[in-house]
Automatic annotation (TrEMBL):
Keywords: RNA-binding. This is Ribosome-associated protein. Signal peptide: none annotated. It holds the Pfam family S4_2.
């Protein structure tokens, strides 16, 4: 499955913010729980840090949904 490209304004974005921006979750509180439960992967590896810095080209998955960080 091809990821959806989600443009960001800056050179990087935190994982918790990106999940919300990409509409993978509804709120910041959801970000905390899905990350803590190990449901989020970055570039194919489970990521447990909500503050993980993402850069263009990084791919985030949650369940069967994929989103890729793109230049804004």
């Amino acid at each position: 499955m091809e990821p959806d490209d989600v443009p960001i304004r800056d050179d990087s974005i935190r994982l918790g913010q990106f999940l919300k921006l990409a509409s993978l979750i509804d709120s910041g509180a959801d970000a905390k729980s899905v990350i803590a439960e190990g449901l989020v992967s970055v570039n194919g590896e489970v990521e447990l840090r909500r503050g993980r810095q993402l850069h263009p080209g990084d791919t985030v998955s949650l369940g069967d949904r994929l989103a890729r960080v793109a230049h804004g």
